[in-house]
Amino acid sequence: xxxxxxxxxxxxxxxxxxxxxxxxxxxxxxxxxxxxxxxxxxxxxxxxxxxxxxxxxxxxxxxxxxxxxxxxxxxxxxxxxxxxxxxxxxxxxxxxxxxxxxxxxxxxxxxxxxxxxxxxxxxxxxxxxxxxxxxxxxxxxxxxxxxxxxxxxxxxxxxxxxxxxxxxxxxxxxxxxxxxxxxxxxxxxxxxxxxxxxxxxxxxxxxxxxxxxxxxxxxxxxxxxxxxxxxxxxxxxxxxxxxxxxxxxxxxxxxxxxxxxxxxxxxxxxxxxxxxxxxxxxxxxxxxxxxxxxxxxxxxxxxxxxxxxxxxxxxxxxxxxxxxxxxxxxxxxxxxxxxxxxxxxxxxxxxxxxxxxxxxxxxx
Length: 364
Fold this sequence. Notes:
By secondary structure, this protein is α/β, with parallel strands linked by helices. The chain has helices spanning 14-26, 39-60, 82-90, 106-116, 157-171, 185-194, 201-215, 220-228, 238-255, 258-266, 270-302, 323-334, 360-363; strands at 31-34, 66-69, 95-98, 119-123, 140-141, 311-315, 338-344, 347-353. The protein is built from 13 helices and eight strands. The strands form two sheets. The chain has a five-stranded parallel β-sheet with strand order 2-1-3-4-5, sandwiched between helices. The N and C termini lie far apart (42 Å). 47% of the residues are buried.
């Protein structure tokens, strides 16, 4: 049940992160939530921004100064980068809260803390580096922090952000108990399925109650996305999150504007939501077309069967946002570790998919 979900107090640094954010809100500091461009990162940004801007503003009777930010996949790449942090400084950030990224960026974070005076709260769920220790100079909210693991380690970035919200509620004397009506469960469910988390333990619970929340129809943007996808609200199941709605959210981060997807998920304006849902739907059709085209071109290059132990194929015309999807389809067809790249001058940027028994990062 939702009452069985281990408290935020069991998530490393969640309590101290909640305190820092609550203090920043009270002091009127400008907070920028730095996310990632996939569905998990988009949902995580939406959960935290909506809570701070809407619920906390109402509770404290102030306008919380908080902005969402997601970098460009093509121009800036994944996670925290000098380019993305320069962007948030330009936005006037005093406190940066990362969601779904940042666990491996200690050197960069410390540089911007010392040189630019930025404060950081890092929240992530990706594999931490092996040299992570207890001497970090900033909070790192993470379910796999060595020797401080959360009882359920395989959770998505949006779940981590959702628990952080409960920690902030604790600091601000708001109701921190998680119930079927707790705002954000719907987005945690969407992120959990799209980020391929194992549907056991807390993941199964949040997906179950999150789908029930979606069916209540209280999130305007999701309602419009469901409509434009040809679905009925009452029919929504896990399958629809993974194969119908999730890809439309992901398409924004792959070949469109991921901040559009955030706007869709947090807006109460039905006209805005209808317009963005249409854009995401069209973007997804385009994503499907260019993925299929790229896959067919790759098969032409490789051939119908291959004796190679590993596949590595690149093309200057492929979109950087879909090389991972092409790699996945090639991986399914040939059952080989597969690397797919987009050539750009002397550089090829790529993505990899592997098979059981071969860890592609170790191989690289």
